[in-house]
Amino acid sequence: MSEPPVLQLGQRLRQLRQERQWSLDEAAKHTTVSKAMLGQIERGESSPTLSTLWKIATGFHLSFTALVTDLSVASTEPNPKASNRVISDDRGIDVVTLFPYDPLVGFEVMYLRLEPGSQTQSDPHEEGVLEHLMILEGELELFIDGAWIRLKQGDRVKFAGDQFHVYRNSGETPVVFHDIIHYAKSSCRS
User: How far apart are CA 112 and CA 73, in angstroms?
Assistant: First the structure.
């Protein structure tokens, strides 16, 4: 039986840090995640939020999916998305890796579902990162360039991911969308 995802993430984080020969202090400086939180994650004592996972990936110059893909227990569910679910501490937010980062094309694709009242914010990703959203169901509020915009089913938007941005569902029904993240050739490693 495989270990719980939170322990797998802790092992992955420790391995990444050791490969770079970073102390927890150095990793905290690169990721802007506190030394205490990084230690808790490495020991499997904490399941980080999506925002924290993004900070770690950015600080280690990794794509988001390179950090989180394959951190799951074996699934007996017929739904193939179940085995690619990102484990985080965010309530009301479901993130599934559809296509992990591919260095040949420089992108990854994720499925996100935000329940009513849920929100997730993201600090700037590495320079040159672009995000492409396609709204499949519901209405998403997106904070970019210092303003909120409302996106409805069928809407698409592209924006620079190297700026602070927020996804929010203020509606009464879930919001479902695809997030295609494109990395500049020099910005990350798989």
Answer: 20
